[in-house]
């Protein structure tokens, strides 16, 4: 197959993060029939490099609304920059999530628009792996007018406000689950959630289900409680042999990319 997707590396100096951020841009070489593009922002862009993304994008071949992908590389402060906006965990991880969000929306997107040559962005999507998946979900939840969908691969939905040793209460102290309860549903957003049965071995509540799966299923339940519809707006993929690594996430990425264009 002839490669029809360009790959370019960009270095954006972020005032918010006080560092240079590497962003890999995957974009169609030809867009003769397009007047708008869809944009997928992927956290942990350094992991995307290990995937066969260009081949998958070539196979999609949507000329009417091409998909551009921005793989945003994590920095040395990944555990501070990724998390839940405005709500660090009990170890203060995620304390710069608001700054990372500002970078994406107020620094990176304006940079991209200068590079786009007149094309407009129709839909924006966010995705990520592990802690980057939590960050992607938070972006969509916090900015529903900006993001039409989010893809979460082995998301760190265990993110909690209190140590397990300090009277931890699951219904109260999981940060993202509590945040969902403060939101309202909408009809245009969709969520793609993936876990692997071998993501981890931890089982906080001793119910025989690992935390990665338990926490993700509870995210789905919280979304349903505020009105999101299973199947139409929420897709869940659980891999019996899935592990917490790039190999597993890479195997699911083409499924996610196809899901983005599902009617």
Characterise this structure.
With 263 residues, the chain is of the alpha/beta class. The chain has one domain (5-260): 3-Layer(aba) Sandwich (Rossmann fold), CATH 3.40.50. Helix content is 33%, strand content 26%. It is built from nine helices and eight strands. The chain has an eight-stranded mixed sheet, sandwiched between helices. The longest helix has 19 residues, at 97-115. 38% of the residues are buried.
* Record field, number of beta strands: 8
How far is it from the N-terminal to the C-terminal residue, by CA? 27 Å
Query: Low-confidence segments, ≥5 residues, pLDDT <50?
Result: none
CATH class: Alpha Beta
Q: What's the number of structural domains?
A: 1
Mean pLDDT: 93
Name of the CATH superfamily: Alpha/Beta hydrolase fold, catalytic domain
* Beta-strand residue fraction: 25-35%
Instruction: Specify the helix fraction band.
Output: 25-40%
Strand order, largest beta sheet: 1-2-4-3-5-6-7-8
Major β-sheet annotation: 8 strands, mixed
Number of helices: 9
SSE pattern, N- to C-terminal = EEEHHEHHEHEHHEHEH
Structural class category: alpha/beta
Shape: globular
Radius of gyration: 18 Å
- Return the CATH architecture: 3-Layer(aba) Sandwich
Fill in the CATH topology.
Answer: Rossmann fold
């Amino acid at each position: 197959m002839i490669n029809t997707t360009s790959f370019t590396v960009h270095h954006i100096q972020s005032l918010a993060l006080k560092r240079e951020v590497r962003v890999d841009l995957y974009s169609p070489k030809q867009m003769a029939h397009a007047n708008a593009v869809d944009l997928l922002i992927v956290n942990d862009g350094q992991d995307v490099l290990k995937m066969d993304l260009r081949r998958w994008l070539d196979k999609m071949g949507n000329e009417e609304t091409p998909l551009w992908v921005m793989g945003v590389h994590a920095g040395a402060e990944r555990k501070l920059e990724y998390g839940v906006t405005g709500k660090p965990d009990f170890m203060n991880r995620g304390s710069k999530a608001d700054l990372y969000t500002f970078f994406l929306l107020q620094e990176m997107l304006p940079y991209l628009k200068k590079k786009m040559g007149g094309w407009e962005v129709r839909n924006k999507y966010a995705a990520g792996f592990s802690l980057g998946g939590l960050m992607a979900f938070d972006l969509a939840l916090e900015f529903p007018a900006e993001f039409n969908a989010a893809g979460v691969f082995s998301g760190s939905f265990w993110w909690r406000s209190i140590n397990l040793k300090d009277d931890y209460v699951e219904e109260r102290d999981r940060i993202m689950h509590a945040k969902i309860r403060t939101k309202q549903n909408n009809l245009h957003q969709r969520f793609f959630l993936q876990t692997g049965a071998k993501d981890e071995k931890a089982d906080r509540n001793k119910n025989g289900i690992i935390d990665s799966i338990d926490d993700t299923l509870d995210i789905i339940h919280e979304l349903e409680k505020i009105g999101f519809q299973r199947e139409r707006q929420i897709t869940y993929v659980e891999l019996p042999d899935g592990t917490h690594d790039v190999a597993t996430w890479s195997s699911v990425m083409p499924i996610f990319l196809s899901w983005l264009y599902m009617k």
